[in-house]
Write a structure and sequence with these properties.
The chain has 647 residues and is of the alpha+beta class. It has 13 helices and 35 strands. It has an eight-stranded mixed β-sheet, sandwiched between helices. Strands 1-2-3-4 form a four-stranded antiparallel β-sheet, covered by helices on one side. Strands 5-6-7-8 form a four-stranded antiparallel β-sheet, with no helix packed on it.
């Protein structure tokens, strides 16, 4: 297949030499050389998003055709791809727009690219109202021809407009979400649905008709699901008690005209016509179930759960057989079917594990051919990486805590390397059975790396997640300490540093100030230092009585101001004894850089050792190779000084 050599060349040649020394920070810090792939519905073309952060590109390869148009995106933040019919690819892009000398906003938009590799439109670019929406999620595509793309937009609302009785009741002017049908060839759109200030999203059937509407009531903070048949008015079919219950909604199945919900350890199907809820699949004790969706038939095909690695219960036998055959070929790795043709003859496959960076393949089921498309970290090919194991340990109150433990490559028998505790962000997230560039970078520098899935993490059941409520700086923090003791037979529990990003950065700072005896140093990347300031920053964005502010208060246990102060690292700096490294992107809109600046100022005022590194032009997620590498280099230098390891 000609696509093999063409696509592999487009995603950079692999480095085949075995590294005698650990790979440089740039090999880990680079953004993935292949960020995403997408297959046209007819299976004839594969679009690939790749390159460096300084020169991203989209290539469109026609299978068995030597020509491959490439669109250079330049120094742009390109996020993902999806096809809109067979003639256009949508590239989700992010850019910044200034509003005065001190304010800038990050916008996400969809750029339509034709099969000749030309950018032909930016969806809703000329819409006077939708230009103010920060994100532009694609809610559905009707392949056509001609294709239609349904995206979220904005529309003005007026008091007593006669739209929806709930809008009339509020009687307010302002903006409301709108469902827009757009033409990818021109970017122009028309409004097909008008929501109100509570509307979050819609779900569509195969014809592009809105069948489900998702709302969050900003007064009661309840999550509400509405359904509609034909032109009838919306009817509420399900309601959750709070904003957090939105996580129970999994999706809408168009073939069944039903929604899927996660209820406890089960998934249930609820028909829109009011029929009884029906359990689907097997119970998954201690797991937060999710589902895989067919992008063409718009229905669920598998239930996904698992602790260490994803496990699949296939509802679609045909796809299950394909996945099973590929999983056998890549034993020990996670195999994901990321996209496929409408006739299911061709598949895009991503393969990865904690010790194996992601690689992408094209699988032709008819020809029984598996062709490489590219590697995410080509400079790490054949590099010696750390070995990751799945462990569990008991917290001090008896709760079972799972964790990943990565040991340095080539570790001598009986050796106990210094330990890095690396808590994840979120905190309602989890580490995955996937390549973690920070964990592996640290392992190649001679450190053992512990990634605890502390209480409050997502993925291990509702009870485990709820156990984290109000435990910032509390049991979530002591879960990390208990992990250190649990791996004392594998790593040196007397030589420990804590490193984390986002919530993990908060945990690092809390460790340094609340448990200074446990850590020789602490490094926070885009971390939180002042919980009261965090609440204030959320209020400014969404309002004091908003659902998001309410969720944050519940998560922090913010009813007690004294507790907030007692768990805010910036207010506890006098207790710190270990050196602290702070790293923050100056364009972070998720955790304001002010959080790191406040911590730096407090530590300096208290005469404590602190370093503060500002990543210029970087956001919360570190999407630029240069600044990701800068972060790793700063971390390596800091650790070498405060927690040296023998390589």
């Amino acid at each position: 297949m000609r696509i093999i050599s063409v696509a592999a060349a487009a995603s950079f040649a692999a480095v085949t030499a075995v590294h005698a020394a650990p790979p440089p920070a740039s090999a880990f810090g680079r953004v993935p050389a292949v960020a995403d792939t997408a297959m046209s519905p007819d299976g004839r073309r594969v679009a690939l998003l790749g390159g460096t952060s300084e020169q991203r590109f989209v290539s469109i390869a026609t299978i068995d055709d030597p020509n491959m148009p490439v669109l250079a995106l330049g120094d742009a933040e390109a996020i993902s791809l999806r096809w809109a019919g067979n003639d256009h690819v949508l590239a989700r892009m992010a850019y910044w727009k200034s509003d005065g000398p001190r304010l800038a906003y990050r916008f996400e938009r969809n750029v339509a690219i034709n099969t000749q590799g030309q950018a032909v439109s930016r969806l809703l670019e000329s819409d006077a109202f939708s230009q103010y929406l920060l994100q532009q999620p694609v809610l559905g595509v009707v392949a056509g021809p001609p294709a239609s793309v349904y995206v979220m937009g904005l529309t003005p609302i007026e008091a007593n407009s006669g739209m929806d009785t709930r809008i009339q009741r509020k009687g307010t002017d302002g903006w409301a979400p709108a469902l827009m049908r757009t033409d990818p060839a021109t970017g122009k759109g028309v409004r097909v649905e008008k929501g109100d200030s509570d509307t979050v999203s819609w779900a569509l059937n195969a014809a592009g008709e809105a069948r489900v509407r998702l709302d969050v009531d900003e007064l009661s903070h309840r999550f509400e699901i509405y359904a509609r048949s034909g032109a009838r008015s919306w009817t509420q079919i399900w309601q959750g008690p709070d904003y957090e219950s939105r996580r129970q909604y999994i999706g809408y199945s168009a073939p069944e005209d039903a929604i899927y919900l996660a209820v406890g350890d089960r998934i249930v199907r609820k028909p829109l016509n009011g029929g009884a809820e029906q359990p689907v699949g097997q119970p998954l004790a201690g797991v937060s179930p999710d589902m895989v969706w067919d992008p063409h038939r718009l229905g669920p095909v598998a239930i996904v759960g698992g602790g260490e690695k994803p496990t699949y219960e296939w509802l679609d036998a045909e796809l299950g057989a394909t996945h099973g055959a590929l999983a056998k070929a890549f034993k020990g790795k996670d195999v994901s079917l990321t996209d496929w043709s409408a006739d299911r003859s061709r598949f895009l496959v991503r393969v990865a594990s904690p010790s194996s960076p992601g690689a992408w393949y094209l699988f032709d089921k008819t020809r029984k051919e598996l062709s490489p498309l590219g590697e995410e970290y080509p400079e790490l090919t054949d590099a010696a990486l750390g070995q990751t194991n799945w462990i569990t340990y008991k917290a001090r109150d008896g709760l079972e805590i799972p964790a990943y433990l990565t040991l340095p490559p080539g570790l001598a028998a009986g050796a106990k390397p210094p330990l890095i505790v690396l808590p994840h962000g979120g905190p309602t997230a989890r580490d995955a059975y996937d390549f973690d560039y920070i964990a592996q970078f640290l392992a190649t520098r001679g450190y053992a790396v512990l990634q605890p899935q502390f209480r409050g993490s997502w993925g291990f059941g509702d009870a485990f997640e709820r156990a984290g409520a109000g435990e910032w700086g509390g049991k979530m923090q002591t879960d990390l300490l208990d992990g250190i003791a649990a791996v004392a037979d594998k790593a040196d529990a007397g030589k420990v540093c804590i490193v984390g990003a986002s919530f993990g950065g908060y945990a690092a700072l809390a460790g340094a100030t609340m448990h200074p005896e446990a850590y020789r140093c602490a490094a926070s990347v885009a971390g939180i230092s002042d919980l009261g300031l965090l609440l204030e920053q959320q209020w400014r964005v969404s309002g004091d009585d908003s659902a998001k502010a309410g969720e944050l208060r519940a998560m922090l246990g913010a009813a007690d101001k004294g507790k907030l102060n007692a768990t805010s690292p910036a207010l506890l700096v006098t207790k710190a004894t270990a050196p602290v490294l702070l790293i923050h992107g100056d364009q972070d809109t998720i955790v304001a850089p002010q959080q790191s600046q406040v911590m730096a100022n407090a530590l300096k005022a208290a005469g404590k050792p602190v370093e503060y590194v500002v990543l210029a032009g970087e956001n919360h997620y570190l999407t630029r190779s240069a600044t990701r590498t800068q972060m790793l280099q700063a971390l390596e230098t800091f650790l070498a000084k405060n927690l040296p390891a023998a390589n």
